[in-house]
Design brief:
Strand content: 15-25%
GO molecular function: zinc ion binding
Number of helices: 3
Order of helices and strands: EEHEEEEHEEH
Largest sheet: 2 strands, antiparallel
Distance between the termini: 37 Å
Structural class: alpha+beta
Number of domains: 2
Shape: extended
Number of strands: 8
Keywords: Metal-binding, Nucleus, Repeat, Zinc, Zinc-finger
Subcellular location: Nucleus
Main location: nucleus
Protein name: C2H2-type domain-containing protein
């Protein structure tokens, strides 16, 4: 509660001045940097973000791939970065017809969030 409740995020992304990512916890920034700002030869997290407050640098050879875990659907072979996304795909999408109909056009979507995004992009005056 000290870091989060009622406070603005205090840790910002150090990897790029153009990146606007901010987090209420150091671990969130560390994870963000590792996932979204990987560099093939050197990956460095500034010392002030490291949990033990020492420099954290790891060298990787150009042949070392920074692979993230992948989850694939056993029915259609679609690959997802997150296990939760695979679960949503299997429950709502795989082998099923779109069930959400746009009230303004023939567009149909398999997830409600996709339909909401469609309506806000294609029919902005309908709200």
């Amino acid at each position: 509660m000290r870091l989060e409740c009622g406070k603005e995020p205090q840790f910002s992304c150090p990897a790029s001045p153009a990146c606007a990512y901010r987090s209420k916890q150091r671990s969130g920034v560390n994870r963000h940097v590792r996932m979204l700002h990987p560099h093939p030869l050197i990956h460095s997290i500034p010392p002030y973000l490291n949990q033990n407050h020492g420099p954290s640098v790891s060298l990787a050879s150009p042949t070392t791939s920074m692979k993230l875990p992948q989850y694939s659907c056993n029915q259609c072979g679609k690959i997802y970065r997150w296990k939760q996304s695979l679960g949503l795909h299997q429950r709502l999408e795989c082998g099923k017809e779109p069930q959400f109909q746009c009230p303004h056009c023939p567009h149909r979507a398999k997830q409600k969030g996709s339909l909401v995004k469609h309506i806000s992009n294609k029919h902005p005056n309908s709200f």
